[in-house]
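CATEGORY: protein folding

GOAL: derive structure tokens
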Amino acid sequence: MQKDLNDDFTDNEKVETGNFHNFKEQPTVIGILLRIEKSKFGDSPILEVNNGETSEEIAIGSYTALAGKLTEEDIGKKVKIAYLGEVKGKTGRLYMNFDVWKKEIKK
């Protein structure tokens, strides 16, 4: 049985990966921590960010330098994540480094 392997895909059949924040295009993001999604790659914080008149959910990604800086206890807090650039670790491997701020939302 021969299988049809022609490239006949359409945009409707494309698998989307979600709305991930790009720190190289926008080094700082401020939002409300909605949840932390766990995967085999690590924890991925999900923020609600306000884009003027609308708000949207964005995934931050599972970065080693963020591990432990945002926890389940921080859900509902206002957070600011600032990309500091790439840093060479002790093993010589480059990784993305971040500063993180968090605080309770004033009511």
